[in-house]
Structure formats: C-alpha cells, structure tokens
TrEMBL record, chain A:
This is Putative Spermidine-ABC transporter, permease component. Keywords: Cell membrane, Membrane, Transmembrane, Transmembrane helix, Transport. GO terms for biological process: transmembrane transport. Gene3D superfamilies: MetI-like (1.10.3720.10). Belongs to the binding-protein-dependent transport system permease family. CysTW subfamily. The chain crosses the membrane at residues 12-38, 69-94, 106-127, 139-160, 181-206, 238-256. The keyword Transmembrane applies. GO terms for cellular component: plasma membrane. It is found in: Cell membrane. It comes from Mameliella alba. It is a multi-pass membrane protein.
Automatic annotation (TrEMBL), chain B:
This is Spermidine/putrescine import ATP-binding protein PotA. One of its GO terms (molecular function) is ABC-type polyamine transporter activity. The complex is composed of two ATP-binding proteins (PotA), two transmembrane proteins (PotB and PotC) and a solute-binding protein (PotD). NCBIfam families: potA (TIGR01187). Part of the ABC transporter complex PotABCD involved in spermidine/putrescine import. Responsible for energy coupling to the transport system. The keyword Hydrolase does not apply. One of its GO terms (cellular component) is ATP-binding cassette (ABC) transporter complex. Pfam families: ABC_tran (PF00005), TOBE_2 (PF08402). One of its GO terms (biological process) is putrescine transport. Its EC number is 7.6.2.11. The lineage of its organism: Bacteria, Pseudomonadati, Pseudomonadota, Alphaproteobacteria, Rhodobacterales. PANTHER family: SPERMIDINE/PUTRESCINE IMPORT ATP-BINDING PROTEIN POTA, SPERMIDINE_PUTRESCINE IMPORT ATP-BINDING PROTEIN POTA.
Amino acid sequence: MNDRVELFRGNRIFLSCVYWAFVLYVFVPLILMVLMGFKDSKFIGFPIRSWTLEWYTGVFADAEVLSTFGYSVAIAVLSTLISVIVGTWIAVLLEGRKFTGRGVTFGLTVLPALVPGIISAIAFRIYARYLGIEPGMGAIVWAHAVHNVPFVVLVVMARLSTLPKSQIEAARDLGADPLIAFARITLPYLVPAILGASIFCLLLSFDDFVRSFFLGGYEPTLPVLIFAKLRSGMSPEINAIATVALILTAVIGVWAERFTRRMNKES
Amino acid sequence: MTDQKPLVRIEGLSKHFGETVALDNLTLDIAQGEFVTFLGPSGCGKSTTLRILGGFERPTHGRVILDGEDVTNQPPEKRHVNMVFQDYALFPHMTVAQNISFGLELKGMGKADIKRRLQEIMAFLELDSYAGRYPVQLSGGQRQRVALARALAPDPALLLLDEPLGALDAKLRGQVQQELKSIQRRTNKTFFFVTHDQEEALTMSDRIVVMNKGRVEQDGTPEELYFRPASRFVAEFIGETNLLSGWMRGTEGDKVVMDWEGTALKGKAPAGIPAEGKPITASVRLEKLGFHADRPQTANAVQGRVVGKTFLGSRMAMQIAVGDKDEPILKAYVDAETGQSVGSDPIWIGWEADHMAVLND
C-alpha cells in the first residue's frame, strides 16, 4: 500500500516537472520577445543594459503600422460577419430536418478547415484571377470568410443540438410562426455560440498570413507587414508590434472564453 | 355528455409512423369544461393524440373539430389550444413575466391589456413575487406553475397537459394534483391531460380514457373504471386487483357463474355473455375481500390460509393460498389489527357478486 502511494507521489512530481518544462518551452520565447521590445539597442540579445519605450512610441507614431493595423481589423471584422451569417445559416439547415445528402453536405462544409493553408491560398489565387477578382481587401475577406465558415458551423451546430425540441414547439403553441420562433427562441439560444465563434474568427483572420500574403494587393495586412520588415533585418520595433498584438489577442481570447462559458452556464 | 355541441370532436383519427400504428381510428367527443385524462402505458397512443390536438402532428386519417371548426391541418400557432409541456419548455432567456406575456404579445394584444392579463394570471397562480426571476432561479413546482400560467394566459379553448407532474417529487405531486383540479374547476377550462400514472388519473379526472395499442380500452368516470373495468387490461392497469381465471358455467339472473378452483363464484356479467365452458377471467379488488372465521353469508366464499403478510401502516396486504395448495393466489387488504390477529389456521374469505367483474379479455 505504502509503496503504491510512494510510486504515485513520484509519478506526480515527474508529471509536474514535464508540465512546467512544457510551459517554459512555450512561454520563454514569448517572454524574450516582449523583453527585447524594451531594450535600448538595435541589437537583439542579452545583456539588456538600459530600457526604453522608444520602440513603442515609434510604433504608435508610425502611420504605416497604424493603417496596416486598421486594415487587418477591418478585414477581420468583415470576414467574420460573413462567416458568422453563412455559418449559422448552414448550421441551422444541417441541424434541422433530416434530408438526403445531409452527411455529404456536412462533410463538404467542414472539409475546407482541413485543407492546408498554402494549398487553399494558391487555389484561391488562381480562382480569383479566373473570376477577375483583383488581389486586395475583397479577395482577402473572401478567403478568410470561406476558411472560417466551418468553425462557425461546428460551434453553432453543437449548441443547436442541445436546444430541446419542446422550446420551439412551445413558441409555436403560443402563436409564433416558424420565423418568429427562430428569431425569438432559437437565435437568443445561439448567442453564446455565435459570439464565441465570432471571436475565434476575428482572431483567425487577424492572425492569418498565408491567405493574406497570396491574395493581398499592395497594401499589407499586419502579419504581412511584420514579415516584410523582418526581411530588412530584425528590429525591436517588430517586437513592440508583436507584443501589442499578443496582448490584444490574449485579452480578447480570455474574455471571450469566460464570457461564453458564463452564457452557457446561464441557459 | 350533455346535448350541447361538443367542444372537441375527434373523428376516426389514425396515425401511422411507417409500419407502426400509433393511433387506430379514434372517435371521441370532449365537452366544454371536462377534465379528460388519456391514460395508458408508453406507446399506447395517448401522446400522439395530444400532439395531433396541439397541431404538432398531422393524422394519417381522420379529423379534429374544435368548436365547430375543422383544425386538422392548422399549424399550432393558428389554434385556440395551448399546452403545458412535459419539460415545461420555459424560455431560459426570458423572465417569468416575459414567458407568460409571450403568447399574449403574439396574439397582438395591446401593452395595457397584456399587463392586466399578466397581473391577473400571476395573482391567480400566486406567482406575483417571481415575475422578475428567470426559470433557472425557480424550483420544480414553481416552474410547473409558470408553464401553466403561460399556457392559460392566452385563454385557450382547450388546455393540453403532457405528463406535467412527472418531474415533481412524490410529495409535491399530490399537492399539485389538488391544485390543478381546483384550477380547472375555477377556470371552467377544458383540460386534456395525458399520463401513465393511474393514481394521478383517478384523483383529478372527470373522465378517463384508457388507451392500449392505439385503441380505446375503456372510456368512463374514474369510479366506473375502477369498479367496473371492461377488460382485463383496464382491471390490471387501474389499481391493484385479483384476477381469477376460471371457466364459464352459466348465468343466474343478471350474474355470471364461473368455476374457479373447484368453487362456483358469482360476478357481474361483461358486455357480451361468454359461451358455457369458455375460459374467463374475473377481477376483484384487494379491499373487497373479507376475512371470516366461519363460512360467511356473502355470495362468494372460499376457504384459504394466509401464507404471507406485508405491513403497510394503516393496512396490511395478505397473501392467501386457496384449497390445499401452498402458492398464494389471492391478495387482500385488511386493516392492520385484523391483519395481526390472523394466524396460519384456515379461514374463510368472502366477497359479494357485485364486487367481482367478469372481464372480456
């Protein structure tokens, strides 16, 4: 009995060591990146002799960085709107009445999420040219929206499957036609899922490099700009940009996660 | 039923789900103000009938006439019928007041009228203090009342109740049964109640329709069903009973004489008199069997021995073997004192012919 307890304790120490090693492995690069953004020198590396906010003030004064940031946000918001509307609509269709070809439809809907980014980006590029769509914002929004639809479909369908049938029947029973029942019962029930999916889409779009790179025009998105700056050498300015982006996405991500969890608990 | 026009007329209603027949040619009238219970095991067709009345299923054959109007093909939102769902189906994102007003809003009622009706119905069901609460903040009994208030608020011609007491604990259920019955009396609404619980049906209903395999087994008052079951199924489903299997011997006045364990027993005749020598079954309720030291003057009497007792508080259930067998074939309820005084000596069991119903299988 005692032996087993000892073994268990040993296991636990070993497992927690592995866990913390993993955490370090993930976070040390991030911490280094953040630190270098405050270093008062163009050369990345230790020791840090003096600290500065110069890179940050520089970034916030850099019109190119700011407009690129705005451009990325606009693309994220537009593509998210499209994916959420289309994705919710598909989810409602798929989760509703059973119809022949439902499985195939579901497969075709989810498949794009599994196609490697580089492949779908090239395919989009060729197709856009074929359709006569100029590279630029429209093309990027389109590609991001299409890529994000499967995530919306999956999240919304999961939520929809937990909506008791009696909820809709009760609404109908009380005088709601199918459309009113959808607007007043189904949609409010889906709000946590739709919000969660939206945040996820925003972050996916904001973070995307491959599609934005292949389908972009002259104006770069933020990830593309960072990539372009890297080609002319690593600079603490990039660290500053990355740190701001990191904090922003982390805050939104954590908030969204807690928010959806709370909403789910309430209903 | 009175000579006035029935509120609901169900004509030759059938529902097939693929090969299975859920409801088989049901014809029935329901009068205004009646508390009708559809009772039966799961799959008997009671819920299908309810869902057809609510407009959630279309019948394969037949019609539903509500208040003189054929509503068979009307969707639920067009019908003057409301329903209390088994899981209550309260809207989680709406408060109690919003839940109750939902149906009123959709009826196109004005704001002031909605407010008045809301207050009226909440006062009636003692929900005033919960108006601002959300369903998650309510107990099971309170939720049930909100569901009832929401269904009653639009003033439906017919209220459907789909096993609404199933989710409540036993103690609360008894209380809610009384409450429901009194609400039905005070509102004079027509209640169409569906349950598999025979006790619930007996307590509340004016009329019980016992369903089995999509067909009506018997349609009558609770007393009729209990004391004069028309079939073996009804006798077994409602209350506890002794089923005696014997042979038809003949008739004596309006009574049937049967052979059972070598004794001639007299009972009430079923609708069609069976032929002599045919196997028949008779039902006699547990509380109708009397214990006697000597042969009693009752129409039926057999000698037996008590081979088992179960103490139930106010009364005792006795297992009785008849003749020289050891297996108990009769069960009886006696008061606890009598039960205690009975030993293992042979005793006489007696019951009247009127207390035994000979059944159609």
